[in-house]
Structure formats: structure tokens, C-alpha cells
Specification:
By secondary structure, the protein is an all-alpha fold. It contains 7 helices and no strands. Bound molecules: zinc ion.
Length: 108
């Protein structure tokens, strides 16, 4: 009976504090998901993503300007924030339009 109350208190304490995944874990999951998508077929070109309203980061913008073919590369491999974002918890990446920067400085 005493054990049950102890566990109820622990569960209540856990429910009050919102869990937050580490930023580097979010970055690794994002990279893995994009890699998985790239394995099953060509990704949409960066230019097409931008034309459809998608945001590109500064590195993706530069690659999107290259001749046809280059713009369809995996954005994870283009973005220089990936390496830091996957390894550091508070990576110094801050440019807009970059999912890695959002994982490290976003609100969730
Ligand atoms: Zn980026």
C-alpha cells in the first residue's frame, strides 16, 4: 500500500515536468529519416522544395543554385550544421531555415 502511494507520487512528478528530447538526438533522428527516404528513391530537388514553400538553409540555398542534378542531393549531406548538430547538445548553429538549428534553438 505504501509502495503504491510512492509510485503515484513519482508518476505525478513525472507528469508535471514535460519531457524534452535532447537536440542532438533530434538531429540524428532527422538525418536518419532523410537518409532512409533517400534510399528508397530520389529526393525532391531543393529548388522544387523551395518553389513549394519549403524553407532552405543557407547551404541548401547555395546548392539549389547549382546546375540541374546537384540540387537533388540529400540535404543532410549538404548542410554543414549536421555534423555539429548531431554531436553537440548546444551547437553554435543559428541560421534560419535549418532544421538542425531549430532543434538546438527552437521552442520544442
Ligand atoms: Zn541546414
Amino acid at each position: 500500500m505504501e509502495d503504491e502511494r510512492l509510485f503515484e507520487r513519482l508518476a505525478a512528478a513525472g507528469a508535471a515536468a514535460p519531457a524534452r528530447a535532447p537536440a542532438r538526438l533530434k538531429a540524428r533522428i532527422y538525418s536518419a529519416l532523410v537518409n532512409r527516404m533517400a534510399e528508397t528513391g530520389a529526393l525532391r530537388t531543393l529548388a522544387a522544395s523551395k518553389a513549394d514553400g519549403g524553407r532552405l538553409c543557407v547551404f541548401e540555398e547555395a546548392v539549389a543554385l547549382l546546375p540541374a542534378g546537384a540540387g537533388s542531393k540529400n540535404p543532410c549531406r549538404i548542410c554543414h550544421a549536421r555534423v555539429l548538430g548531431e554531436r553537440l547538445e548546444r551547437a553554435p548553429i543559428f541560421w534560419p531555415g535549418c532544421p538542425y538549428a531549430e532543434f538546438h534553438h527552437g521552442s520544442d
